[in-house]
Amino acid sequence: MSYRFIEEEATADIAFEARGKDLQEVFRSAGDAVMNVMIDNLDAIEPRESRFLELDSEALDLLLLDLLQSLIYYKDAEQLLLRITQVEIGKFNESWRLRAMGRGEHLDHERHHQLVDVKAVTLHNFSLEQADDGWRAHVILDV
Amino acid sequence: MDIVHALEKISDTVWELPVTYKEGMRVPARIFATERLIRDMDETVYEQISNVATLPGVTKYAMCMPDGHSGYGFPIGGVAAMDVKTGVISPGGIGFDINCGMRLVTTNLTWDEVKPHVNRLVDRLAQRVPAGVGSTGFVRLNRDEFRTMLEEGARWCVRKGYGWEEDLELTEESGCIMGADASAVSEQAISRGINQIGTLGSGNHYLEIQVASPENVFDKKVAGSFGITIPNQVVVMFHCGSRGFGHQVASDSLQVFLKVMESKYGIKILDRELASAPFDSPEGKKYFAAMKCALNMSFANRQVILYRIREVFSEVFGRSAEDMAMHMVYDVAHNTAKLERHLVDGKERELLVHRKGATRAFGPGLPGLPARYRDIGQPVIIGGSMETGSYLLVGVPEGAQSFYSTAHGSGRTMSRTRARKLWRGQALQSDMESRGIYVRTASWSGLAEEAGRAYKSIDDVVAATELAGLSRRVVRFIPVGNVKG
Question: What domain count does chain A have?
Fold first, then answer.
């Protein structure tokens, strides 16, 4: 599971590429990348609370967008920092469905080292593609 | 290809990408900048502004201001006026941080009077105006009260005691844009924003104490009309937006527009971030009404922050805010789409003017200006990087060429990821302190990302706006204290 931030792109925002050997892994990597834009020490986020996420989308890449937006939502609405622990992705009829468990805890200014707040996931050059070695997502966040 | 060669030079400060530059362009794209700024712009700006020129209803030109830099959908600094009958509304042409904007407040204090207290002032402001990831404010509302605030904007705040009646007159749209409809916003948007009134946010948001020294006053008469009258006068400038509420309103609408854009309306776009709907459609109207709620949320946010600033100054100096003449100069919005009337080829037309990272800059005599500024022109507040300085400009009659729009800041030249690698926040803080700028931040890394060298020269940018006839310099301010979001 991995991601890297891209220096040469998105002057005012943050661009990253996430990878995973399968869909589940790339979704989890991308989720951690979003959280890592906001919090430097992800390991300090303890799994004290959980939120079950169930999302549907006609397009697989927009399902990823929805998941990342959910993490941003909980950060503002409940000051809850979540990491995706389990995730299932499948196609039902014409639409993609995701069921995931997010675990984490409320923002603690002492223990969680803040970086920059994420406003939204943009669709500019947003992509989720299958490569030889698994899946790759390219994402630009508005910060 | 050297992009500068693809540009047609119209004048020293106007550069054009003709409609032949890219298939589907309906109008040329125009960039207002000096040659030096043009050479500093990344090529993404040209790709993005020419994409904007393909949107239905775009009128005259897709335009980019001198501080233009790579954004998403529109470039930052992008301006496009859409025909209200045939044109679209595009959330990517407004930005996620709807009505991210600037507010400038005067005092009658001089730097000599403030200097001994500046550290305490900044520390108290940092405590009273929360900043950083997921920060929450002191105003507690239930969901119905929050909806009322969304429809009333800063007017709601003044009614609740968070400000002076005159503050409203000195805010764009009098702090309350008409037509905001809280029933057009999602429950998620309300949940994200309900506890965030009175918070700064992060990124390039800040609250700064600044000084107007006599050598930095370019137009004494206009400066006087704007309330800058004393040598080395201290002012307060801050930059923030509609917080999670506005971000969610924009995100919600992108999803809706993506679904209907092509299937229902046959609109084809070159970048999904430009997802659009006809302005005159149920989806377009709903977003417009929701976006106006975000405009109002942002006016309210800045109003409550002003309330806190006045409180902190009163506490530190033991005098009332009235006694310290803490009047607003003005409050301007950056990320908006507004209905305005403009002359196009000699005919007055109603247009939906998208400004993303661009400031409205009405020249003298235009309706919508406060009575006291009607003969002078609109104050334009331009925030520079936290290390260099900021400006107060004024709108000019020649601004008609850009639908009365001008720059909004310095414009970045370096990515945040790169800046974060190059500089360390702690070292930057002590370096700034040795140069007379006391800074407090919610994030060391966030501070490093905002280093002055990650930005274009603010002096070059505002000089270019003046040369191009978009706005004129009135005062330059020097930072002395900064609360960094």
Answer: 1
Distance CA B8, CA B15 (A): 6
Residue B412 is which amino acid?
A: R
Residue whose C-alpha is closest to residue B60's, from B31, B82, B78, B38: B82
What is the residue extent of each domain of chain B? 3-484
Q: Give pLDDT, residue B42.
A: 86
Range of the domain at A81: 2-129
Position B65, amino acid: M
Nearest to B354 by CA among B101, B65, B90: B90
On whether residue A138 sits in a domain, the answer given is no
Judged against a pLDDT cut of 90, whether residue A112 lies above it is answered with: yes
- Phi–psi pair at B16, nearest 5 degrees: -125, 135
Question: Checking phi first, is residue A126 left (phi over 0); if not, alpha (psi -120 to 50) or beta?
Answer: beta
3-class DSSP assignment, residue B320: coil
The residues in A 82-121 lying below 8 A from B, measured between CB atoms, are 107, 109, 113-117, 119-121
Q: What is the DSSP letter of A118?
A: -
CATH number, domain at A8?
3.55.10.10
CA distance B322 to B328: 11
User: What pLDDT score was predicted for residue A1?
Assistant: 66
CA distance B251 to B72: 13
Establish if A142 belongs to a structural domain.
no
CA torsion angle B197 B354 B276 B75 (round to 10): -90
Tell me if the domain spanning B3-484 has CATH number 3.90.1860.10: yes
Asked whether the predicted pLDDT for residue B1 surpasses 60, the reply is no
Burial class (CB in 10 A: 0-12, 13-18, 19+), B413: middle
pLDDT at position B344? 97
Q: Stretch B116-135: mean pLDDT, rounded?
A: 96
Q: Measured between alpha carbons, how far is A17 from A4 in angstroms, rounded to an integer?
A: 5
DSSP state, B304? H
Between A5, A75, A143, which is nearest B134 by CB? A75
Is residue A38 within 8 angstroms of chain B, CB to CB? yes
Per residue in B446-485, pLDDT (tens digit) is 999 999 999 989 999 999 999 999 999 999 999 999 999 8
Mean pLDDT of A42-68: 97
Closest-CA residue of chain A to B134: A76
Dump pLDDT digits (tens) for B149-195.
Answer: 999 999 999 999 999 999 999 999 999 999 999 999 999 999 999 99
Kindly state the average pLDDT of the residues B363-374: 96
B394 φ/ψ angles, rounded to the nearest 5 degrees: -135, 145
Split at pLDDT 50, 70, 90, the class of A78 is: very high
- The confidence score (pLDDT) of residue B2 equals 60
β-pair partners for A51: A102
> For position B259, what pLDDT does the model report?
92
- CB contacts, 8 Å: B201 with chain A: 117
User: Nearest CA to CA, how far is A76 from chain B (Å)?
Assistant: 5
Identify the CA nearest to A14 among candidates B273, B72, B64, B51.
B72
Kindly report the nearest CA distance between residue A8 and chain B, in angstroms: 7
Is the minimum CB–CB distance between B203 and chain A shorter than 8 Å?
Answer: yes
